[in-house]
Amino acid sequence: MNKKGLTFVKSSNKYRINGVAIFVAIVFFLAALIGALSAELGLHLTTGWILFYRFVLILAGLYFLFAIKVAAQWEKTVVLRFGKFHRMAGPGLFWIVPIVDTIANWIDHRVMVTPFSAEKTLTKDTVPVDVDAVLFWMVWDAQKAALEVENYQSAIAWAAQTALREIIGQMSLADILIGRAKMDAELQKIIDERTTPWGVTVQSVEIRDVVIPQDLEDTMSRQAQAERERQARVILGESEKQIAESFGEASKTYIHNPTALHLRAMNMLFEGLKEKGALVIVPSSAVDTMNLGAISGLVTLGMTQAKKGNEPLSE
Do residue 161 and residue 246 come from a single domain? Predict the structure, then answer.
């Protein structure tokens, strides 16, 4: 990964030698050695013929060493003959003519993953953000990937980063934070349009993380907290309003039924006094309304309830 946060896939060795070619070459080299010794000891050939015999077998071994190629199941290669496109080869075993044929590149047809990022990029509302993303792509035309662009891996990475910066500049911070799916789709569309001429298709783009400045993050946190407090106060006000409306409806019922109001007041007073150590403050108007007599009557009633609460239960 370089300083810009791009990951480049290292190209395969154009001249890689496989095990099959090495084995065949060793067989020819051994044949040259053993055959020359046998000819020298048994046939009594001249030194010139022995050297010619060795040269032919060694040359054949070198030919097969560089002529036999093996491509993996997921690979294809572009074969050039005298610098011009000749054919596509692979996967599996194939042959080339050394010196005459050259391999332009080994193309991997599997799905590739390229992380990329945009650092300190200004949004539409001039907020600097750092965005990390992952690109999933694959080569669908090995010939174009090898011949139309010098290094398709690095070209894809740069195209992805440029597209990401363009998208960030067209969106506000709020849209980036809540609209990642839309941003992924736009990025995939833009990058795919740029890479299609290279024989590459983009399967998906995923935004991994969006980093904003710490000061702005603190401000947004306070703003969110204030918004939640405002909502809590609104909900509390709505609750108070509903409670007041309920009391209003209840008062209409008690206006025409004083006995019900008296019983309700007595019940509320009883519920308060039956708690141990409870202190109930009752307005004098309420005492007169409930016909409890004087304050001493209330005290006596409270003490009686407390005493009953302290008595042990009989078996």
Answer: no
191 with 114: CB under 8 angstroms? no
Helix (H, G, I), strand (E, B) or coil at 80: strand
CA 204 to chain centre: 11
Strands annotated E in the chain: 68-71, 75-81, 84-89, 92-95, 101-108, 112-122, 128-139, 200-211
Sheet (strand 200-211) strand order: 112-122, 128-139, 200-211
Alpha carbon 181 to its chain's center = 11
CA 307 from chain centre, in angstroms, equals 68
Strand partners, 122: 128
- Report the domain count for the chain: 4
Are the C-beta atoms of 166 and 186 separated by less than 8 Å?
no
Assessment of whether the complete model's pTM goes beyond 0.85 = no
- 185's enclosing H/E stretch is helix 180-195
Provide the domain limits for residue 233: 220-256
Residue 127 lies in a domain: yes
Q: How far is CA 39 from CA 33, 35, 55, 265, in A?
A: 10, 6, 14, 129
Over residues 135-162, the pLDDT tens digits come to 999 999 999 998 888 889 999 999 999 9
In a domain, 6, yes or no: no
- To the nearest 10 degrees (0 to 180), the angle between helices 180-195 and 152-170 is 140
